[in-house]
Amino acid sequence: MVAEVLSWAFIVAGSVFVLIGGIGLIRLPDFYTRIHAAGITDTMGAWLILIGLMFSAGWTLITVKLFMLLFFLAATSPLASHALAKAAFLRGLEPMLGRGLEIEGDHD
Asked: Which parts pass through the membrane (predicted)?
């Protein structure tokens, strides 16, 4: 009973996290803020959902596989976000700046 409640709590929390991240992808203004939202959503939302699935599966081989998947996502998701952001920056995509901020060397 407790494992089932924890399972649903983690799955719902992860789903809400992914939903909020999806809304952030639509509403945020530039590539860098969007990649930040996507990276956090991908990492944390997937973690919460996978932990919920682990509680649902109990102590079986499925739990071990889910844990391995969780570890793989923890290792690769932040790296993928960083690689995308670095590639965009190297291609010349400048971040959107707030009021009163300037890029170095842009003194008109």
From this structure: 6-28, 40-62, 68-89
